[in-house]
């Protein structure tokens, strides 16, 4: 324990003391997504691994977190999906995740690179689509790329 001495508004505050976070009754979890691919310049036919890392800066655990990863038409043969993810209608979804404060969930899958052509896209997007906790700097499932619960590669 450190001793702290500070002058604040003409009052002298001297420690040691303990600071406690006083909750307003709302559980809060700062969820952030980071998305990566194993190769930024793969060849047609290569199998690439996508990694979606969902971090929780707390202060509370994030529960019932759901992640959606829209697979663009430039990839096919989705395999090796981790963490009980479900692939349907060109979308990978992970549901019911619990991420402790200060922890991360790492989700991965593999895809085969398809041939380029008119209308073929390789930009892959993932976002948090649900969480039981309030996130002060982002809203799940709103599609805003400016928020930290959304990432693309």
Structure keywords:
about 150 residues, single chain
* Continuous helix count: 0
Low-confidence stretches at least 5 residues in length (pLDDT < 50)?
A: 1-11
Q: What distance separates the N and C termini?
A: 44 Å
pLDDT averaged over residues: 89
Number of extended strands: 11
Biggest sheet: strands, sense, closure? 5 strands, antiparallel
Described by its quaternary structure, the protein is single chain
How much of the polypeptide forms β-strand, as a percent range?
Answer: over 45%
What Rg, in angstroms, do the CA atoms define?
21 Å
Which series of helices and strands comes N to C? EEEEEEEEEEE
**Large-scale geometry:** elongated
Strand order of the largest sheet: 7-8-5-10-11
Helix content: under 10%
Look at the helices and sheets and give the structural class.
mainly beta
What's the SSE blueprint?
Layout lengths: L4 E4 L2 E4 L14 E9 L9 E13 L2 E9 L4 E5 L6 E3 L2 E9 L4 E10 L11 E6 L19 E3 L1
Antiparallel strand pairs: 1-2, 3-4, 4-9, 5-8, 5-10, 6-9, 7-8, 10-11
Tell me what the structure shows.
The chain has 153 residues and is an all-beta fold. 0% of the residues lie in helices and 49% in strands. The strands form three sheets. Strands 7-8-5-10-11 form a five-stranded antiparallel sheet, with no helix packed on it. Strands 3-4-9-6 form a four-stranded antiparallel sheet, with no helix packed on it. A two-stranded antiparallel ribbon has the order 1-2. Residues 1-11 have low confidence and may be disordered.
């Amino acid at each position: 324990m450190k001793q702290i001495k500070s002058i604040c508004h003409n009052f002298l505050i001297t420690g040691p003391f303990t600071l406690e976070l006083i909750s307003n009754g709302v559980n809060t979890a700062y969820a952030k997504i980071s998305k990566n691919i194993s190769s930024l310049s793969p060849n047609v036919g290569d199998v690439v691994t996508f990694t979606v890392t969902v971090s929780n800066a707390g202060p509370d655990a994030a529960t019932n977190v759901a992640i959606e990863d829209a697979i663009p038409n430039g990839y096919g043969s989705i395999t090796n999906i981790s963490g009980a993810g479900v692939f349907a209608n060109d979308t990978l979804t992970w549901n019911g995740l619990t991420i402790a404060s200060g922890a991360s969930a790492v989700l991965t899958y593999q895809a085969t690179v398809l041939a380029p052509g008119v209308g073929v896209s390789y930009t892959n997007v993932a976002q948090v689509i649900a969480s039981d906790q309030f996130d002060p700097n982002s809203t799940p499932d709103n599609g805003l790329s400016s928020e930290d619960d959304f990432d693309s590669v």
